Amino acid sequence: MKSEFFKTSRIPPRFAVFFVSIAAAGITCLTEAGPNQDSARTFLTTSFGLSGTDVARLDAGQVVSRTLDSDHAREVATLGIVRIATTPEQYVTRLADITTFKRTDNVLQIGTFSDPPHAGDVAALTLDDADVRQLQACQVDDCGLRISADAIRQFSRMVDWRGGDATSRVTRLMHQFLVDYVARYQESGAPALMQYADSSPNVDIRTEFAALVDGDRRPWRHLDDLREHVLEYPHDRVGATDMIYWSKERVYKRPVISITHVSIVRAADYAPVRLAIASKQIYAMHYFDASLGLTLLVPDPSSSSPATFVVYVNRSRIDLFDGALGRVARRIVSGKARSLVATELIRLQRELGSS
User: Longest C-alpha distance within the chain, in Å?
Assistant: First the structure.
């Protein structure tokens, strides 16, 4: 579905049908649960290894978060779960307004891409002076920003760095670079994903992303449709709803411009999961080689009022862990990631649970 749908507060007919079908499936799930009213908690304990104490904390309104194991030296993996007084459908409705959904002090700028994208989509995006200076010094395999080799050559060739309008020229070129990149991705999917040429060897986002998907199959249980969609986009065989947005966020005290592709699917009828959301980072100007988030919305059938367990799993590959202190840095970043996930889930619990 085209991303324009996400730019309006009114739900279009096609999305309304999507919600109605989901709601009908949810009623079926509640009916079929029968005497077993703990299907959601059973799913959480068996799929994510939660203890009875963890479940009790969730029922008390607390967040359960932890660092997950990963054998990859550049990878940080995090799990967070919280129970929110909302329905999966309401959660997705709020998510559709991504600029409000993600509004925090660390989100400096944000916007969505049209299908096809155009320059107006990123008109509000600004570049920091530090990034402009790094672009001026960029060479292939030696650049302070993460961009492709072709882009590095274009900035070198098309910007008069001595001119008084260098910053505005660089900003326009970056806008066009991002728009063209998203257009290629919307048309071709994974083959259009970038190779970062900031250092050698270059990082291939497509390879990194595929490795993240295959790194841990447990969260994808019952989610073959979503897994197929994120790997084969833009070929849609499952009726997924997609949007692509850009953001400029403060990460480790540094502004990072990134592009994220969000896909939403209704889970199989037999699964406790009602809706599943994949957040696939297809570009990041700093730090990230690749990042994949998976959100599972699991209705609580034992609750007399609407309640949903929100499960968030993220796996990210980060370029900060080289050198003698790499392991120490990874532990520190893992701890911060776990804390950030918990903080974000608490925020969502407070904001969505009160709506």
Answer: 74
- CATH class of the domain whose range is 3-353: alpha beta
Q: Are strands 254-266 and 275-284 parallel, antiparallel or unpaired?
A: antiparallel
How far, rounded to the nearest angstrom, does the alpha carbon of residue 79 sit from its chain's CA centroid?
14
Contact indicator for 73, 326 with CB cutoff of 8 Å: yes
Q: Is the dihedral of CA 244, 245, 246, 247 positive or negative?
A: negative
What are the tens digits of pLDDT across the range 264-317?
999 876 679 999 999 999 999 999 999 999 999 999 999 999 999 999 999 999
Helices (H), the chain: 13-32, 39-48, 52-59, 88-96, 98-101, 129-136, 149-158, 166-188, 205-215, 224-232, 326-353
Closest C-alpha among 41, 95, 75, 144 to residue 260? 95
The Cα 262–Cα 297 span in angstroms is 15
Cα 311 from Cα 299, distance rounded (Å): 11
**C-alpha R_g of the chain:** 21
